[in-house]
Predict the structure.
Amino acid sequence: MPAETVTLQIPEIIYTRLINTAKATHRPLEEVILRALAKQPKIWNNTTYCLKVTQTVL
C-alpha cells in the first residue's frame, strides 16, 4: 500500500505523550503515531460517523 504524507498540528500534550512513548519503547516517533492511529477502527468503520465529522469540520 502506498504511503501518504500528512502534516498535522496537534496539541503539545499529545505530542509530548507520543515522544515519551517513542523514547520509552525505543521506537521511531512515526511508528508510535501509526500504531496509535491504527487503534481507531471504530471511527473508520462507521461511514456515517465519518461523514458527520467531515461535514462538521467543513
Remarks:
- The CA atoms of residues 22 and 29 lie 5 Å apart.
